[in-house]
Amino acid sequence: MNKHKLASLIFFMAVFFGTVACKDQLDVGNPNEPTVEQNVTTQSGLVSLAQGGVYINGFYNGDGWLGNSYFSLPWGYNELLADNLGADASNNQITTVGVPDYMIFDDGTKVTNPSPSIGILRTYNSRPATGAGNNPTYYQWLNMYALNNSCNVVLSQLDNITFTGDATTKANTFKAWCYWWKGYAYASIGSMYYSGLIIEDVSGTNSVSNSNYVLHDVIIEKSNEYFKLAATTLDGISTISDYNEVLGQLIPEFCQVGNGGVLSPEMWKRSINTMLARNILVNKLSPFVNGNPNATITKSSTTTMTASDWNEVLTYATNGIKEGDYVFTGRSASANGFFTASGGTAASLTAGVNTTSTFKISERFIQNFKPGDKRFTNNFVQTTTYKNNYSFTTRHSLVDGGNGEAGVYMYGSKTVGEYEVFIGGSYEENALMLAEANIRLGNINEGLEYIDDVRDYMGAGVAPVAGTGLSLTGALTELVKERRVALIFRGLSFFDNRRWGWIYDISNGGGSYGNTVATAGGAIFTNTTINYNFLDYWDVPADESVLNPSTSEVPTKNPNF
User: Fold this and answer.
1) How many CB atoms lie within 10 A of CB 90?
2) What angle do CA 543, 546, 551 make, to 5 degrees?
3) Which residues neighbour 339 within 8 Å (Cβ) at sequence distance 6 or greater?
4) What is the pLDDT, as a whole number, of residue 203?
5) Across the strands, what pairs with 87?
6) pLDDT 10s digits, 134-162
7) How far is CA 77 from CA 131, 135, 355, in A?
8) Whole-angstrom distance, CA of residue 312 vs CA of residue 355
9) What single DSSP character describes residue 164?
């Protein structure tokens, strides 16, 4: 290759690991050893390569500009764009990227943003801005292509390893690991960027040309292909003890607590079904604007959900994550982890007093709690007000570690090992997909039962909504409130606001209505109209598109905005 290609070369940041796998930490060895082939000759060496390729390359390296992981920076942008969080720091444009174009307060006052989000994203999508830590589009692309390429390398080394025990089972476990994370990486790219690259070997030049960009829906198809391949590979597992041995080494021991653990093949396949359902749901429109279940968005980079789509989501989610299943999670560690307790997640950067925390809990997030919800009383206080002259004034702070109410969900902590990141799907997400699909297909009461189940599971302590005779609009209102409350800090919130139509310009049928806004002057409005007008799918980062220009007819800049 005679051109720098970000998506294919970033793998080499941290792939050379030691030859003895250690379950209680990430086992990083000598990074100066010259080749993968010389270092990876045993099962333990392959475990270190496969573990580090996921947790270090995929979720840690390159994210030191704000916090220190994929879960603090790219997921932070997701929450900012969903208006769950606000910010005032200049780092990485976090104070500007999530600011709507304008707001109209209850009294008719209109406040306009002088620097709209789309212009900010495109102004700072440049190589110099990346070098200065000011290009928001860069980080998710960096992480996910590093993750994808790491898996390509592991797959390329499998034939060089002599396994003890059931060699087929062990090889299939490694394959399922790589296929799962490749599916995850492509899902992340396809859900966020207008176009992307399909890279299927270590050099990035095989299969689809390294500069042959394809549309986001093609990337999602590739994600689905790998998730399904992971599932069929798991069907080839015949010796559970050897499977457990390998997977137990691949997942760090400090992540094998709470909802994290060594997934059985059946649990893993249910996680795959949840991700397949998610890929459909978050990449199509299901407009619910201003209480209208039949709203129409006239300018979008995707299409609207059909009854067939909802039935497909229902089928996958019915066979998705169940309560009690182990899933893929992350935890901070006192040493040798892949993010820190204080700065490694958007949740930890929000925890604490709002006048000093990096992120501030938005009034638009808080308005989704129902009266008496214990998740609110366990996690939020109104002891201080952070004042911002545009949209991020807030009366609420996220309590670090919660207030200690037994059996009630805790939203964020800066204590080592306390906060659990759901890297993939979760029981709550899967149940709420079942809820939404059922509601949209006319099974309203059944859908409401799933909402009640999630609220009970998280210790909300609110009255059930099933059996109360809610209309379609009423049921979707409950669904929207619960998804926003239950799934914050899980990398999904922006995608929800996008598919519900809220991020689109009001002139195109979008916008968000009935919002609570606190002003720096002390006024509280509860029926504010917000025109976000955000990019629905981001442009490819300039570090890729400039150095690796497209040789296909697919643009790297979203042409719909």
Assistant:
1) 11
2) 120
3) 59, 60, 67, 68, 69, 71, 72, 330, 332, 345, 421
4) 63
5) 359
6) 999 999 999 999 999 999 999 999 999 99
7) 18, 11, 20
8) 45
9) S
